[in-house]
Amino acid sequence: MSSPASTPSRRRGSKRGRGSNPSTPQAARSPPSQKRRTDDSTSTGELQPMPTSPPADLQSPGGPDALFSSPPQFQHSAIPLDFDISSPLTYGTPSSRVEGTPRSGVRGTPVRQRPDLGSVRKARQVDLHSDGPAEDIASDQSLGQKLVIWGTDVNVASCKEKFQRFLQRFIDPVRKEDEDIGLDLSEPRYMQRLEEINMIGEPFLNVNCDHLRSFDENLYRQLICYPQEVIPTFDMAANEIFFDRYPDSILEHQIQVRPYNALKTTNMRNLNPEDIDQLITISGMVIRSSQLIPEMQEAFFKCQVCAFTTRVEIDRGRIAEPSVCKNCNTVHSMVLIHNRSMFSDKQMVKLQESPEDMPAGQTPHTVVLFAHNDLVDKVQPGDRITVTGIYRAVPIRVNPRISSVKSIYNTHIDVIHYRKTDSKRLHGVDEEAEQKIFTEERVAMLKELSKKIDIYDRLSSALAPTIYEHEDIKKGILLQLFGGSRKDFTHTGRGNFRAEINILLCGDPGTSKSQLLQYVYNLVPRGQYTSGRGSSAVGLTAYVMKDPETRQLVLQTGALVLSDNGICCIDEFDKMNESTRSVLHEVMEQQTLSIAKAGIICQLNARTSILAAANPIESQWNPKKTTIENIQLPHTLLSRFDLIFLMLDPRDEAYDRRLARHLISLYYQTEEKIEEEYMDMAVLRDYIAYARSYVNPRLSEEAGQTLIEAYVDMRKIGSGRGMVSAYPRQLESLIRLAEAHAKVRFSEKVETVDVEEAKRLHREALKQSATDPRTGIVDISILTTGMSATARKRREELAQALRKLIQSKGKSPSLKYQQLFDDLRAQSDTAITKEMFEEALRALADDDFLTVTGKTVRLL
Amino acid sequence: MPCVADWLNNPFSIVQDIFAQNVPNSDWEKKVTEYFKEKLKENNATNWVPSLNDVPVHYLKPNSLVKFRCMVQDMFDPEFYMGVYETVDPNTNARVLHFGKYRDVAECGPQQEIDLNSSQTVTSERQTFYCVPVPGESAWVKEAYISASQARVSPSTSYTPSRHKRSYEEDEDMDLHPSKQKEQHMGSGGDIHGCVEPKRLETEASAGHHLISPNCSPPLDLNFPLPGEKGPACLVKVYESWDSFKVNDVLEVYGILSVDPVLSIVNNEERDSSTLNAVESMDTAEEQRVHSPPASLVPRIHVILAQKLQHINPLLPACLNEEESKTFVSNFMSELSPVRAELLGFLTHALLGDSLAAEYLILHLISTVYARRDVLPLGKFTVNLSGCPRNNIFTEHIYRIIQQLVPASYRLQMTIENMNHSRFIPHKDYTANRLVSGVLQLASNTSLVVDETQLEQGQLDTKGVHNVTALGNLITWQKVDYDFNYHQMEFPCNINVLITSEGRSLLPSDCQVHLQPQLIPPNMEEYMSSLLTAVLPSVLNKFRIYLSLLRLLDYSISEEVTKAVEEDFVEMRKNDPESVTADDLHRTLLVARFLSLSVGQTTLSRERWLRAKQLEALRKARLQQQKCVNGNEL
Fold first, then answer.
1. Which residues of B touch A663 (CB under 8 A)?
2. Is B485's Cβ below 8 Å from some Cβ in A?
3. More exposed terminus of chain B, fewer Cβ within 10 Å: N or C?
4. Which pairing describes strands A850-853 and A366-372: parallel, antiparallel, or unpaired?
5. What percent of chain A stands above pLDDT 90?
6. d(CA B382, CA B365)
């Protein structure tokens, strides 16, 4: 007997409470199968094994736990009424029953085999020669007519009934999911789904296992433990309901139930022999997918003598060729007819552990997936997916020439459901798909943490603890990590408002800017780190590439798109060339990227926060110059940064002393001590992730008022000197910062404290970056207009000169424009352009000193 | 009680005994490990175990106990195997239980069949590591291990790696395992390529180890990180606590050697057969080749005991925490200062009489990353030795000297050619499903000597730029971003980088020392090579112990000294705020740390701090001077 079994046996006997009869489960599970149909009738005479449903397993109340011992003939009569007794199906497994013949309501809709549960039918069959005869479906209970599928505790009837009840009654208590759009929440969720199937005609019913669990814990457990038995039962139940309701509906084939989100396993690393044959959900990244493999499901044989035809099912890749024609009894006359055999599509996909799940210093694990039928070609290499399927282990084929066997198994997952994790990234807002699952304790811990009064300071000091001081910069980055609330004004035509906060750090070399960037990059899950020197516009955005194999145009995304919903850290921002930088304009305000090349015109989302670091042009920061002059960046770009910090080397004794102490401590503390001292990076990461996905603060009334006041104040400061010191962009920045601060507190409302802190931080950043080095006045226009301080200074002087000139002319209420210009030029020893003159006039006009009408200047 | 030879030569019989005694319980596995642990603890028992590092695979008895000193290069997916299985005799229906642990092939007698459906079957999990010998391991390390070994390799004569002996031994081997040998011959003999045999001899003679390529397929790339490496690669099957091992860890494993030729045959069958089962075809041919290479080329070791090595210096006790090694340490510490003085003298000569550079070189050689704060590695001390003479001879000899001192090292010649064409960063090959190694995949505490004097002007292509960036990242962050195609993964490392260059290096470094030769020998070649021969082997060994040992010491700074240093720093900043930065403090603290350790002090003292400052001042003065000499240099 060289045929391999389909599954290795497991060690779970006692766990399932079947310890008393250890041989039965395995026997039912891994049998060589062809024998069974013919032997069915003969089996009766032989000794029965004793498959029992021990009390622990028997879930239905009142069902006394009788030992099964009746031979198959009796069983037929004992089948519950909702089975069509006359149907031959009852002999088979639930799946073959559905698939074999249409039920009354289902008539007309063809059955589609489920290769994802492929080996089920075979597995169900009985290993006659090793364990003696046994029934394939079930042992019945003399009382209550309890049928239990062999080797499990699944009772087909009650399982079906329970699932139908679930379908009909389950109402989702919490609406969370993205796919719920258009569903009425007060109605049973899955009935609406069935209705949808009727309308759309896609015969797949996706069932969230979490829902099932909240509805019926036991059914969920059964589904997880015995998916190959339970899912066909679910199919049956769903079809019954569906065709009861929509008898006229025409579907391609019968509905197949696809459970997903089984909570059992999430990490590939945790897979172990215990999980074999169970329903599991794991996530990872597709690294390779094979060509389509046609897999024969059913072979069609025809007798060359009498043209008698027969079908043979494939059992684990083998065809049992009938050697004798049943009709004419000719030996070796049956010929395989390829065209009439049934094939199903199959694809091999390699899934690699996602990088986040991996322990440091180890290489990622991979696992093989088999996708069948519809699921073929649903995923491409590079996709992040979550897979629900059945974990299988198959022994490596026995070599007929050698008696030894390789003692290892091949493992794979038969895919039942795919879910792309990042499919939504190219369109629409969808935070849910990325939501990290937090355990309840973790959430409680985070919430506890958020109640601490000094949480803001705590978090900011936990951020990059090796970098000394720079408290405000850290706070700014912290707020950036949290981000503002996303607002949608699409209907009013303004589009999305940016919620991301952009920060620019500039300052002396060697002030650990790069280190801060590295830290942030390591902290956030979707961070990208590039250097301005090395990146091109293409590398940052996206480019179109022709796939060498398919000749298809493919859009390859760059750092900015990859860091969608994350942070893009750009070092050496100043070294970036002009064209590359110009790409950032769109990204930093509209948060999109437009691509128009090689026949692809599209807009990608790039909702990324930008954390950039720039060195001053003269390598050392020149305090006598403005930010603009120091870093030589266009003001159009600068104004898109919410916060611009200067990282300067402060030169005072106290600072030096603290710095020295801090550094020395680095050099002798041991690693454990270091860890105790600061908040763990993991906690910080979770805290941020939680806040980002669950907290969405809105402005409160008073906070709004405070913001208005703040904004008006800022405008006032400027208008006093004839310029505007704040623009709506600054107001937006303030709002974002305030929202982010509220997020830090896990507060759903933005309150005055938040606005105060936002104001303070904004002012702090301004003070550092927008201070006019000559006057010492905070002047936003340095950033927004790029007006250099020298130019403005000269303008001021010119205005004064002009004023003096006018005053010297005596009391005449109006002057000729050209005359005045000439006089001024004559008086001044430097060249004065017309623009400068006009600016000076405007400055005086702003001071209410004069007005200009046409060609005359009128004094007030 | 089984005798010594038994647990060494036939460990399976012992496992079988323990298995048979304890069978229904699952704790037989624990007992097996304990048994071997006890055995190996006995006097010098570890020296009796033949090591795959010194002995070619074909001299080792299959299924005997071996050891292997190696680095984890790649980790394959976990395997499920039959931990316990049952065989049945179809005639008599007699059932026997077997264990599948420590085996690749489920054994059963000629008249028996494996009952795959048996209820007794236990499925277990094990992990496979692809291990290579420690990259860049110095010759003296290998020699020392070989001379310590007392293993009797072949059952008859002692092993001598000469050609004529081999056939004789193979014959004997064949007598011992007639069936297996026959099968092996069938495997290769049945092949269409009749030329296998002569080819085999040829490759073997050149490569120095057993190379059988049954299909005459292109020679398998054994995936060594460094070019030109030799030695066996090995598939190490780990049965417990595999989570604690990481890529690039250096391990010493004791386990059962499996070179069962059946393994290769099974593979060939699968590869050749046209009736491929869908399940088996899921691995590409490429992947098959890599994951189950011929056992004769890449043997399997089924691990009974595995331990991470702190260091691979054979002159030091393997574990420094034990009682007897403590006495070793304290004995050595007492004679530390003469050793240091001698080493300093030796290196001063090597560096053409420059004692300052020699001082810094010592500090560099005992540096090690001892902690990481966030992303910042602490304790790395990359030295850029600038001002090296532009001929090849000097840098080459410096490398040779370092090679004689440290257990593992590699000389990276930074030529345009090399940068553009060699593989620095390991990357994942998804068709073969393995991590293709690169030069920067090195074990901890390997010395990497980058020779920049070789660099000419020229064009770096994309690969070259990546390689230079990777090298820069390695130096700054002590990590290498392995390329996984769809994403990158960061692997922390701990590599001592020494850069030799003419001017300031284009790579970042922690500290630049400008070489000031005090003497220019007329014949550099002769001068340098005479240096090494002049040192007594016993002194050389002391140097080796010195450098390895000091790395492993702890270090602290007292409150008092902290205060003093603080004052000092503030003072310095006051005097010269432009030139004294936090970076300088960082560096001086590092210098002070290694300076204290180099004289065996584990706390910082005031004198050492001053000495560190003095060294730094000297070094800086030199750089300043250099700047003045060639004004255009920054």
1. 582, 585-586, 589
2. yes
3. N
4. unpaired
5. 0
6. 10
The amino acid occupying position B21 is: Q
Helix (H, G, I), strand (E, B), or coil: what is residue B499?
strand
pLDDT score, position B92: 80
Spell B473-496 as b/e; 16+ CB within 10 A means b: bbbbbbbbbbbbebbebbbbbbbb
Please say whether the beta carbons of A260 and A208 come within 8 A.
yes
Q: A-contacting residues of B 81-140, CB under 8 Å?
A: 81-82, 85, 90, 100, 103-110, 112-119, 121-125
**Residue B441 CB partners (closer than 8 Å, separation 6+):** B73, B135, B225, B248, B426, B480
The encoded tokens of residue B203 equal 């490759």
Across-strand partners of B409? B447
Q: Within an 8 Å CB–CB cutoff, is residue B29 touching chain A?
A: no
Q: Is A346 on the interface with B (CB under 8 A)?
A: yes
Element housing A207 (H / E): strand A204-208
- Cβ contacts of B444 within 8 Å, gap of 6 or more: B248, B250, B368, B493, B494, B495
Identity (one letter) of the amino acid at B209?
H
Q: Looking at the complex, report in whole angstroms how far the Cα of residue A519 sits from the nearest Cα belonging to chain B.
A: 6
- The percent of chain B in helix, strand and coil, each rounded to the nearest 5, is 45, 20, 40
Contact A272, A330 (CB under 8 A): no
Cβ atoms of residues B100 and B106 within 8 Å: yes
Which ranges of B483-631 does DSSP label H, i.e. alpha helix?
Answer: 524-534, 537-551, 559-575, 582-598, 606-629
Q: Where are the alpha helices (DSSP H) in B384-523?
A: 392-405, 416-421, 462-477
Of the pLDDT bands very low, low, confident and very high (cuts 50, 70, 90), residue A302 is confident
- Are A752 and A777 in contact by the 8 Å Cβ rule? The answer is no
Give residue B570's Cα distance to chain centre.
Answer: 44
Nearest to A404 among B108, B280, B281 (CB): B108
- Please compute, for residue B87, the number of CA atoms within 13 A of its CA located in the half-sphere on the CB side: 18
- Among chain B residues, CA nearest to A4: B116
Residue type, B127: Q
**What are the two backbone dihedrals, phi and then psi, of residue A350, each rounded to the nearest 5 degrees?**
-100, 130
Mean pLDDT, chain A, rounded, equals 68
Residue A113 has pLDDT above 60, yes or no: yes
- How near does any CA of chain A get to the CA of B587, in Å? 10
Query: Which token pair is B268?
Result: 């060939």
β A256-260/A147-149 pair status: unpaired
Sequence-ordered strand ranges (E) for A246-399: 256-260, 279-303, 309-313, 334-336, 342-353, 366-372, 384-395
Whole-angstrom distance, CA of residue A147 vs CA of residue A581? 70
Task: Quote the ipTM score.
Answer: 0.75
Angle value at C-alpha A435, between A430 and A441, nearest 5 degrees: 155
CB A330, CB A324: distance < 8 Å: yes
**In contact, B144 and B314? CB cutoff 8 Å:** yes
Which B residues in the span 544-563 are in contact with A, Cβ-Cβ below 8 Å? 554-557, 562
pLDDT band of residue B457 (cuts 50, 70, 90) is confident
pLDDT of residue B283: 57
- Concatenating the DSSP letter of every residue in B560-582 gives HHHHHHHHHHHHHHHH-TTT--H
- Rounded CA gap, A422 and A428, in Å? 12
pLDDT in tens, B204-236: 333 333 333 344 445 667 788 888 787 788 999
Cα A793 to Cα A622, A629, B352, B489, B574: the distances in Å are: 18, 15, 61, 52, 35
Q: What's the mean pLDDT in B479-485?
A: 84
Higher pLDDT: B125 or A508? It is B125
Query: Of the ranges A426-440, B74-88, B408-422, which one carries the lowest mean pLDDT score?
Result: A426-440
